[in-house]
């Protein structure tokens, strides 16, 4: 009986040792993924534009507006494509450490829209549309916990952090104003304007969280196919903004067409620093010390670039 028990213990020990030997080592994992939004929220303001889809009629004689409909615009910049390369080391049949480098590009989202119709004939007199897209590069240090098994289906769980190292929110705004409302703010001599504006908002440093469940299946020597369901929660706040494009055509009060360029945009509107708090000393319009020739100030806003996604790729061992 003792010999049988001893033999069983030796066989189990040998199997575990063989599995451990097989599991240890370095590997890389090229992958692609697509994420969907999980917790859509109201987008931040685009300058003075609130995240609303607003439709209204305009009296062409008085300029008075009559609301037709208004709807809050919600969404998430976490929806989009990712491509990444991960390097890892498996310490044992159970535990591994991975470090991933991922490039992300979100879907383009409408952030604000206004449409004003002539109350008499239904022609569009004012159209404003702002849309945003996030592009980012991040690092993902994670711990991976495998289920030790000799079967081809090999499940695992992983948990870790998301550390964005580069990225920005790009906002494009198209304006067609035949009422003079926006045109006169650019230049009091204008009664109409068609304009394209592009700006980039850079983020403050942040750290997010990720968790995933997946499996791998061997398809060749030292090569496996893997698939994961991954959840990310990454909240990012704004640091600074630069308007990179500001061009179009304006119409003067006498009907002359004139070009609109970056020179028509004061420094305070071209460059913005975001803060947790602004006060009477901040460089914002309306304050006594406002200087249009200096960088402007504004309250910081937040977006989420997390979501729920599916990763697929190859695991290549060495």
List the SSEs and their pairings:
Layout lengths: L1 H22 L1 E12 L4 E2 L9 E7 L6 E8 L1 E2 L4 E11 L4 E12 L2 E10 L5 E23 L7 E24 L5 H4 L3 E14 L4 E13 L2 E11 L1 E18 L4 E4 L6 H4 E5 L20 E4 L2 E3 L2 E11 L1
Parallel strand pairs: 3-8, 16-17
Antiparallel strand pairs: 1-6, 1-19, 2-5, 3-4, 6-7, 7-9, 8-9, 9-10, 10-11, 10-12, 11-14, 12-13, 13-19, 14-15, 14-16, 14-18
Description of the structure:
With 318 residues, this protein is mainly β. Strands 1-6-7-9-10-12-13-19 form an eight-stranded antiparallel beta barrel.
Sum up the structure in keywords:
19 strands; 318 residues; disordered N terminus; 8-stranded antiparallel beta barrel
Major beta-sheet overview: 8 strands, antiparallel, barrel
State the total count of DSSP E strands: 19
Number of helices: 3
Helix content: under 10%
SSE succession? HEEEEEEEEEEHEEEEEHEEEE
In round numbers, the mean pLDDT is: 91
Strands side by side in the biggest sheet: 1-6-7-9-10-12-13-19
- Helix and strand composition category: mainly beta
- The radius of gyration over CA amounts to 28 Å
- Span between N and C termini? 43 Å
Q: Uncertain spans, ≥5 residues at pLDDT below 50?
A: 1-22
Give the overall shape: elongated
Strand proportion, as a percent range, falls in: over 45%
């Amino acid at each position: 009986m003792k010999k049988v028990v001893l033999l069983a213990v030796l066989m189990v020990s040998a199997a575990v040792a063989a599995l451990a030997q097989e599991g240890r080592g370095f590997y890389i994992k090229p992958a692609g993924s697509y994420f969907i939004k999980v917790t859509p929220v109201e987008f931040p303001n685009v300058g003075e534009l609130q995240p609303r889809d607003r439709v209204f009629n305009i009296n062409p004689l008085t300029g008075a507006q009559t609301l037709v409909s208004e709807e809050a615009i919600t969404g998430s910049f976490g929806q989009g494509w990712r491509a990444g390369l991960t390097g890892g080391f498996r310490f044992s049949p159970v535990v591994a450490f991975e470090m991933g480098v991922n490039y992300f590009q979100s879907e383009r989202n409408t952030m604000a829209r206004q449409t004003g119709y002539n109350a008499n004939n239904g022609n569009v007199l004012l159209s404003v549309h702002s849309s945003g897209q996030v592009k980012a590069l991040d690092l993902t240090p994670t711990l991976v916990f495998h289920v030790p098994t000799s079967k081809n289906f090999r499940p695992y769980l992983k948990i870790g952090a998301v550390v964005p190292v580069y990225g920005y929110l790009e906002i494009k705004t198209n304006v067609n104003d035949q009422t003079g409302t926006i045109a006169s703010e650019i230049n009091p001599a204008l009664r109409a304007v068609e304009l394209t504006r592009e700006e980039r908002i850079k983020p403050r440093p942040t750290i997010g969280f990720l968790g995933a469940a997946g499996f791998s299946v061997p398809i060749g020597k030292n090569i496996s196919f893997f698939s994961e369901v991954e959840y990310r929660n990454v909240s990012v706040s704004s640091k600074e903004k630069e308007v990179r494009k500001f061009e179009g055509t304006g119409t003067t009060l006498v009907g002359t067409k004139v070009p609109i360029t970056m020179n028509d945009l004061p420094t305070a509107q071209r460059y913005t620093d975001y803060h947790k708090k602004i006060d009477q000393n901040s460089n914002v319009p309306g304050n006594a010390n406002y200087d249009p020739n200096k960088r402007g100030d504004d309250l910081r806003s937040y977006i989420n670039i997390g979501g729920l996604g599916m990763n697929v790729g190859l695991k290549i061992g060495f």
